[in-house]
Amino acid sequence: MMAIPKFLIIIFCMFGLNMFYSQTSIPLYKMSMNSDAVLIVESRDYQQITKQESEYYTSTLVKLKNIKNVLKNKHNQNFKNSVNFIETDNNDFFLNVNGENCSGIGYTLEKDKKYYNILFLKKKNKNYFIIGRLWNNIVENDLSFFEKNINIINEISKIKDVKSKVSTIKEWFQNANENHPENFIIDTPFTEEFNVFFKIK
Prior knowledge:
Elements: E1 8-11, E2 25-26, H1 28-34, E3 37-42, E4 46-52, E5 58-64, E6 69-73, E7 82-86, E8 116-124, E9 127-138, H2 140-156, H3 162-176, E10 185-186, H4 192-197
Parallel strand pairs: 1-9, 2-10
Antiparallel strand pairs: 3-6, 3-8, 4-5, 5-7, 8-9
């Protein structure tokens, strides 16, 4: 039996569940705020191997050969060249927001073009869970759009004063989709749960 690595990234795949987000509408605020780490990985630097352990359980090993950029790293984890175990479970998450459920990440659209994945990870105990990913059809020119907005969200997360935080979120979102990539747009952060939490009418 293959030994489970000490450092684990656990990814949840929702089989048979239809995604309710449109292909181009990304809940970026919620994904970023829920994450302890956000990584940009080129598709060719992501290796995935699936193993059928039983008739009801499939395990997957992945290796992140190289990290193009780390946009968030709350616990200062070294992700480069890490071999990670992927778990499956039915949980509420944002996996493959811009594509079909639970497919291999290493797929590219054009042979001579570089494509990137943005992985959103959350740490529980010693394990990292991939709670969302934007994958495959993100090209080099799209990255600055995501980098800029995720960095702003990182700064927003540090604001303690509620009024100041809500005001900053509103100000950010007014310009968040300026010069957005053709295939992507950031969804509003002002969800029902957001309004209830901040008591916004």
